[in-house]
Amino acid sequence: MDMHLHHLPFTPRTLTLAIAASILASQPASNVIAAETRAQQTEWRCQTLTNGQWSCDPSTAQPIPVQKVQRSKPKTRAQKKSVPATASASKEQHHSLKALLDWQPIQDLPPEMRASEPFYSCGAYIEPPRPGKDDTGDVNKAPIVAESNESSYDKASVATFRGNVIVRQGSRQFESDKASLDKNRNHGQFEGNVRFRERGVLLAGDKGDLQLDSGRATLENTAYVMHEQKARGSATRIVRNEDSTLELTDATYTTCPPGDKGWQLFGQNVTLDMDSGQGLAKNAVVRVQGLPILYTPYLSFPIDDRRKSGFLYPTLSQSSDNGLDFSIPYYLNIAPNYDATLTPRYMSKRGLMLENEFRYLAGNSQGELGLSGLLDKDELKKENPYYNDHRWLINYRHKTDLTSRWIAEIDYAKASDKNYLDDFSTALNLSANSPLNQRVGTRYLGGDTNHSWQLSLDAHQYQNMNQTADDPYNKLPQIKLAGNWLANDSLNLNYVADYTKFTRADNWHYLNETLVNPSDDVYQSNYDSGYGIKSANGERLYLETGAGYSFDRSYGFIRPSVKVQHVEYRLTDLDQQNVIDDLNQAYFGSFTAADYTESPKTTVPSFSIDSGLYFDRFTNIGGTTFTHTLEPRMKYLYSPYVEGQEMNPVFDTALMNFNYHSLWRDSRFSGHDRLGDANQLSLGLTTRLIEDDGFERVRFGIGQIVYFEDRQLWISPNAGIDQGVDQDLDTDPNDETERLREDMQDAVSPLASELVYNINRTMNLRQDLMWDTSNNELDSYGLYYQYKPSDRRVMNAGYRYLRQADRYVKNEQNGNIQDPNNPGTYLTTDNNLSQTDLSVAWPVSNNWSAMGRWQYDLTNKRNLEILSGVEYNSCCYQVRVLWRKWVDVDDNIDHPNSKSGIFLQFVLRGLGDLTSGSTKEYLEGIKGYAGDEK
Prior knowledge:
Layout: E1 6-8, E2 42-48, E3 54-59, H1 85-100, E4 103-105, H2 111-116, E5 123-125, E6 144-148, E7 150-153, E8 158-169, E9 172-182, E10 187-198, E11 201-211, E12 217-226, E13 231-240, E14 246-254, E15 263-273, E16 278-288, E17 291-302, E18 310-311, E19 315-319, E20 323-327, E21 330-335, E22 338-347, E23 351-362, E24 365-374, E25 392-401, E26 406-415, H3 420-424, E27 436-447, E28 451-463, E29 474-486, E30 491-503, E31 509-517, E32 522-528, E33 537-549, E34 551-553, E35 556-572, H4 576-586, E36 601-613, E37 615-621, E38 624-639, E39 654-655, E40 669-670, E41 678-691, E42 696-707, H5 733-745, E43 751-760, E44 763-772, E45 777-787, E46 794-802, E47 807-808, E48 828-829, E49 833-843, E50 848-857, E51 862-873, E52 877-886, E53 899-908
Antiparallel strand pairs: 1-3, 2-3, 2-6, 4-5, 6-8, 7-8, 8-9, 9-10, 10-11, 11-12, 12-13, 13-14, 14-15, 15-16, 16-17, 18-21, 19-20, 19-53, 20-22, 21-22, 22-23, 23-24, 24-25, 25-26, 26-27, 27-28, 28-29, 29-30, 30-33, 31-32, 33-35, 34-35, 35-36, 36-38, 37-38, 38-41, 39-40, 41-42, 42-43, 43-44, ...
């Protein structure tokens, strides 16, 4: 046959055949007898001409050696039929390819590829080498190379190719036993062991046809694989449309490896769109181990890593609060810059809930709007003060970059009631859970490298989410200017100006709880508007300016600094006599009527000089060379005591807990309502062992503050307590006052130390110890151990102790109990915090992992949380089952009401790439554990 320079009038079109469907089981071929001769193979190279036709030339091809196979001895008449060996081998190869689809088990992968696979991987799909596989050019402009054992071209304008037909164009390759091209109809037909390869895609079918002028193609009885997505499937028929979408009939889709039916998606009609990266199945059924778990007339699912619409991971639980609790989020990829997550949730004891989170990105703005709530009234009666109420939550967060330096923000969350988050939790992206933020603000960043400053304006309101706590102050508004000026390499000047108006709504002060429904054990929280100095609202102006100079050398530093602080108020809503009585009682008669003012002012200068030295040497311990450092440090701080600060309300200030880092602070108070007095010298010593690569093996620090004068400034725990009103307090303010006054008179602080010992790269030990040398007792202590050889293997053990004031003993109604031996007082008991925390997450086999956590309150002899569960991971799905028993943070310690629940989660790998409403929140207490949910 002569095809020299014969023009074939076919215009080549893009053959972006990608994704089809299921695996067709094939029986192995029986014994065959090989032919003794084979035709010489001819290779044709075809180039597209300017008129769109082809020009093809035969290239020089070497004859393929004839393979001879020994004939088997005839046994029966049926076995005497001769089948060419090449055809038989081709069929067996096709059947194997159709079943395995380039699959390589994990043990057969190269070491570097095996190390990059996730822990649950069983293997990967590996494309075999072939000509043009890595071609990155325009496939439509690449020359067409055709190979076959035999070829012919008849007068009816039909070109026929037989035997090992291979047609390549760039990175694309089509194979079959027989192919025919009809120039009159612009039609191609392929029969027998049809295989199509494109980068990352393999299709293996029985036959197919192609309309060359439109690119529409049809394949029958096809199996497919997408290598990078680790997805495979099958279909009785696949149609490739002109827009490159694929329509599959009676199709399957799964990310399980060949031979594994862990989960499969079955669809009567499935459309796959490579451009958008998503699939759409109609009349779809999801089966797990052959059992149908979900039917839907419409299902969208991903076929690559891009965002797309579809169901996310469902969560099933059973708890004492909500009963049977089932939720299944649905993700909506509305546009490249808009998406939403809609989560229907059914709770058998409460009703149906719907949660929706909408996110957007528009120009210089981004944000999210979340809405959640019961579709009807709350149906739970037991221990629920919100029975028969509508319950809801709204969350809105927005940020706009007005310029490169100027931003505007909104962070607003509001709930129908204080128990909403405790009862339901949420998957909405709240910036704070208690209290909820309700803030609108703007910030401008000014200056340059030497002088940076920031101006901010905020209106900040809070919603208290604790039934037995006071509401915090709102800041409506707060205007703040803060800056830092580097005058030169050593001199640093800084300043702060802060104006804030503090307000609180009426009935902000928690009094007690009363039983309003005995049959259902329902309590109601009672509030009032506060008493004495705590009823104050008003404006505060805080000003600060300071300068520091640094003498830094390689062997040490000296950093003197000076600072002046000023705070003044304009107070409202005060009852003068109540305030005088309150402060006189709280501060032991030191406050008199002459000290009362509604515009108190305080100005305090301070001076400090911080210094340190750095020594190091090389040392060898256990065969390892370390850099051993010795770093003594000393800081002197002086601030005079300025009286009259009792009249300053406590808007946002508290006494901070003492630890090793407190040695170097300039104040023992947070906030600006107390400008503390100090005349002290802090002494500390730190030593480290550092390996050659910078790894810190050991760090130990110890230090103490020497006080030259007693501290006189404090915040009385008795301030704002109305002795004539019945209120249930948690902590005994008299015991707390006694402890504070003792600490203020000690000549030295507790001896503070910290130890961090990284035993190796996977194991570490940390200890924090504060020892009260004045009373020879433990002030606070923490010991924490972690062993973490990998993200899935982690063990934690911890103990924490903190000396605290005694608490009141509670009755079943959460009220204080009268002391029968001391009329007018209440029973108290030890309230020192003493807790253990044990947690573990560990694989017990290649697929199974166990996890658990146990928090125990040694002081009150009760379990705070018990968590136990198992997790099963396979190549294609994850199942997690957790049992949890816990008490709420505001629970009655003496009469605890523990809660329990069972939580179940399925993760079908490949049906979603976002985690929402998962059990992961319960595993956050296992520090260092990273559970995979992809």
